[in-house]
Amino acid sequence: MLRQQRDGTPVGSSQRSLERRTLLAVGATTLLTSITGCTRISEFVADYVVGDVNLFNLSEDRLTGSLEFIGPNGEELLAESLDLDPDADVEKRKPTVIYEDVLNSTGPHRINLETDGPSDRANISVSDILRVTDPGEEKVVVFFGNKVGNEFLTLSLIEDFAELEDDLES
Fold first, then answer.
1. Is residue 5 part of a domain?
2. Can you give the pTM of this predicted structure?
3. Do the domain assignments include residue 163?
């Protein structure tokens, strides 16, 4: 008989699902970077690969830290430890973290994000308010590294990846 977790899913199945989604998200990031300008394709891929809260480590640094996501009524929606491997050698490492079923209500959501890394640029402490208006469509996207935008950290609330196209092209 298969052992089950509290939610009734077989033990280990959520990890396999997360690993598959991580691989797909890394592939989507690579694809999005290579096909900027092909907005319809990037939207299609991104809408099916990412979750509600998405962290992509596109840097050469291993990042550890914490992520806290607070809903409009002060409820804690996420409280997670982070361990993001560098972008290199993505088949063997996990540079991406995806959280699903987090954005369920409209209103101001607070994100608290802290990372530690081997360089000063990788030591980040951010607290920001994101105003969610369409929780079914919007996604939180966090990019670490200078491959997207001019800063080491890019934090966005988007409906689709086409909104990031300008950042991807620069």
1. no
2. 0.69
3. yes
